[in-house]
Amino acid sequence: MDGNEYIDYVLGQGPHFLGHANPVVNAAVAEASSRGMLFGAQNTLEVEACELMLAALGWADMVRLGMTGTECVQAALRAARAATGRTAFVRFEGHYHGWLDNVLVQTTGEWTGVASRGQLGSHLADCRMLPWNDADALSELLRTSGDTIAAVIMEPMMVNAGGIEPLPGYLQRVRELCDQYGIVLIFDEVITGFRLARGGAVEKYGVVPDLATYGKAMAGGWPVAALAGRADLMEPFGAGSVNHSGTFNGSLMAAAAVVATQRLLIDDSPYERIDAYGRELMAQLAKIGERHDIPLRVQGVPAAFHVSFGDPTPVCDLRTLNTLDLGRYAAFASRLADNGLWLAQRGIWYVSAAHGDAELADTVERIESALAESLP
User: Fold this and answer.
1) Considering 171, 182, 193, 204, which has the largest number of Cβ atoms within 10 A of its Cβ?
2) Residues 67 and 128 both lie in one domain
3) Contacts within 8 Å (CB) and 24+ apart, 267-273
4) Tens-digit pLDDT profile for residues 206-260
5) Which of 170, 216, 277, 317 does the annotation list as catalytic?
6) Residues 299 and 199 reside in one and the same domain
7) CATH number at residue 279
8) 196 and 255 in one domain?
9) Domain that holds residue 175
10) Is 188 a catalytic residue?
11) What is the C-alpha to C-alpha distance for residues 345 and 335, in angstroms, rounded to an integer?
12) Does the active-site annotation cover 6?
């Protein structure tokens, strides 16, 4: 509105994996909407969307479309409770699973509690919070309480905070522990799905969950999410014994966006281009830090990485992340916005298929311009 131009690394908090307003996806949604929007029943586009998703994922038997990742997380937890007859679930510090009362938490040191006014602390009673990347901590909890745990839920890569990858062997050990105690393993792939690879974190890390939630990159920026998983866990939704309701679930708009996006990911795969761009951008950021003698640190994967100030030692959990100078970076991000870079103040950078050589050169130039004004 005011004539400013930005290079965007927020991407709507991640959904714009193909860039803003992809014309192919938008045209597909417009065409589908011209024939209807909601029918109160399944439609052929919904079936096609789910078939394309299952083919991409490779491990799941069934999939359901929803509106948001928050909603699909709740469906996954409900399915786990129904299957196990248990009530509690394990989650991890720094992982985000939506804004509802039973999953929204604020973690400060050893304290975990509500993160919003109006949130009921009693709704967190079934949540067991642990540090991530610590298989021994999970093993010890399950040794004493495994028969009360319905699910273990996690981001398979901790993208929302810190750009933290799983330590070697960690996901496999969690998988083994869940099998040992009859617990449903849920991957929250709302961020990682279709971003880290077309098959998401499962493809990248080679560990298969029982259920997984998806959103953001799966539909080119349109509001749609999904729950995928094993047939025995998913079939109760279709049979009606486990409820997952939603007037707009599987709408023609959502289904058309999924179909168009998935076809683009097949026909013009962006993953190598995004990987190359992200790697070079991460390298350029490290060089900028060295040139200006500031402790600018970069961690993560090319499609989604975290930038902060502090000790260059790799971070593996939230508690270590919180030892960095996150406030200094947030102020730096604000200054970069004044110089035409749109960034999340919490440090995450998302790369899209629309980023190219011109954006990379401009990004470096704009960071240098911001630093020339005064060091953060």
Assistant:
1) 193
2) yes
3) 269/198, 270/17, 270/18, 270/353, 271/197, 271/198, 271/303, 273/353
4) 999 999 999 999 999 999 999 999 999 999 999 999 999 999 999 999 999 999 9
5) 216
6) no
7) 3.90.1150.10
8) yes
9) 23-267
10) yes
11) 10
12) no
